[in-house]
User: What shape does this take?
Amino acid sequence: MLIKTVGEMAGTVWHALEKQGAMKYSALKKSTKSTDAVLYMALGWLAREDKIEMTAEGKSYRISLK
Assistant: This one.
């Protein structure tokens, strides 16, 4: 079920950011071993819950916990 997969990835992303600190999107994708689609949905989930900050950095984004 996709909702379960996205929710689990949101948890994985949160734990990765908690452990490693702020990361660029590409590093976060590599760290979580996620697909773009699931990672984007997980980031949206965390953003909606006001758990992360995303800052534009060149052509990418730096993601960090609030």
Notes: The longest helix spans residues 2-20. The chain has one domain: 2-65. The chain is about 60% helix and 20% strand.
